[in-house]
Amino acid sequence: MEYLVLARKWRPQVFEDVVGQNHVVKTLRNAVKLDRVAHAYIFSGPRGTGKTSVARILAKSLNCEKGPTEVPCNQCANCREITEGISLDVREIDGASNRGIDEIRELRENIKFSPVSSRYKIYIIDEVHMLTTPAFNALLKTLEEPPLHVVFVFATTEIHKVPATILSRCQHFDFKRISVRQIADNLEHIAKGEGISIGNAGLSWIAREGEGSLRDAQGIFDQVISYAGTDIKDGDVEDILDLADRHLIFELSGAVLKGNAGACLKIIDEAYYSGVDVKHFYQMLLGHFMNLLTVKITDGNGVLGDIPDHETTDLKKLAQGASRDTMQRILDILMAEEDNIRRSMEPRINLEYAVVRMAYLEPLIPVDEIISRMEGLEVKLGGGGRQDILTARQPQVDQEAVVTESNQIEADEVKGGDGLWQDLKSFIKEKNPPLSSKIGSGEFVSYEDDCLQIGFPRGYVFLEDIKSAPQMNLLTQMAVEFLGKSVTIDIKLLEGDAHNTGNTASKTASTRNNIKNEALRHPLVQKIVDVFEGAEIIDVRINGSRRQ
């Protein structure tokens, strides 16, 4: 008996056998059932997705001796003739080799005659986009008002080449690529029917190589069977499909995420000398990191439908070692270098350069995590945390910081005693740099009756913060520790510029100081000084008219 390849032997014979095109199947079955069959259909989509198979099933449904029926019997003479391609009333025409106006004129003449033995004359024109413009024009009138006994079914892989005048006269069905999982299930069904032993991993690899085409995947399966026989091991599938580069992709991505640039270069060298096409390898690497990012974002919950379960598990394990931001930065590098790889005469060098950059990326803490952490610490510290720390370090001191805003004094009234204040500031700088940054612009006013008065200019950026109870307690405790006795701190408001007290400040100096204060007043700057231990503002630099 003549051998039939799997794609022909297992070709769908009823609508239920069609894989991955439920939206088409349901519509056509209902059309037959409700007697609402159109006079012209056009099926578009990638190769091997079932366009001509569905056209044949529709022809059998319409011409079956027990029909019209949504489930053809496949036993009557009409069904058998259509299946074998010898029906006189169902003609399959190759649009690529019968594309001229003469062929279409002949078709127009033939459709005038009634069917020989069926209800309908059905014309299935494959690759209809190959028809010439005159041929399409000749078809228009007939297509618009065909005889009642004629049904046209057109199939094409390039719907954009079909004139709009033709499309407007047809019901259009768009066939989708078939998922890896659906193809693998179909191959498993075929394997059981053929008595073939093969693992799920091997089926998934074959299905993926089909790239959405069931026919192509079935052809590859045929090839694997010819290579390995009826007992197919995963290694056999790897050998015939040359899947070594997939293992290298996992190894390379693992080395990148570990920051091992040396291992990355060794893996690329191994891939190169094993005969891997570098440009194709780069595209695989790009897609692989996109899969890793997708797994990181979604935890692999059903999003990667075209990835087999065992590989999704491997992706999850690999993705655990890096943050989402790191994955995005790696993809940024890969996408930025993609065009250079495609055009390069030495793509290996571009690949190595990109991979080394990826391996040396410094890990980043996500911005939202930083802000969240800062805000959490701020709430803690602002809610009594500082007071608790002070209480633990020092026995309770009866100290109420008296903040007086009414007794304003002029800057030029401040006299003497500045040495004490400068020594205290130096002491605080050693003990608590964040507090030192905030009181750095303070001016000594007086020290009488164990009360140290410090003056700050009106509008000073940290004034309100210094006047808060936690900061006043901290400042007072520092002064007590420095002076060795109980003291109180009193904050005064100074009129004038803190940096020019007692002097006539120029407009330029005043403007510069205002710009500095505005920069220091930024909420993020204050938050950093508050939260991060040891943070100290050294300087605010001004570039020309821009504020930095």
Low-confidence stretches: 383-416, 498-508, 544-548
On the 0-100 scale, what is the average pLDDT?
80
CATH topology of the largest domain: GMP Synthetase, Chain A, domain 3
Give the oligomeric state of the chains in this entry, treating copies of one chain as homo and distinct chains as hetero.
single chain
- CATH uppermost class of the largest domain: Alpha Beta
Task: Please give the alpha-carbon distance between the first and last residues.
Answer: 85 Å
Task: Estimate what percentage of residues fall within beta strands.
Answer: 5-15%
CATH architecture label name of the largest domain: 2-Layer Sandwich
Q: Output the structural class.
A: alpha/beta
Number of helices: 24
| Adjacency order of strands in the biggest sheet | 2-3-4-1-5
The profile of the biggest β sheet is: 5 strands, parallel
Give the tally of structural domains.
4
Look at the structure and name the CATH superfamily of the largest domain.
DnaA, N-terminal domain
Overall helicity: 40-55%
Radius of gyration: 40 Å
Shape: elongated
DSSP summary, beta strand count: 14
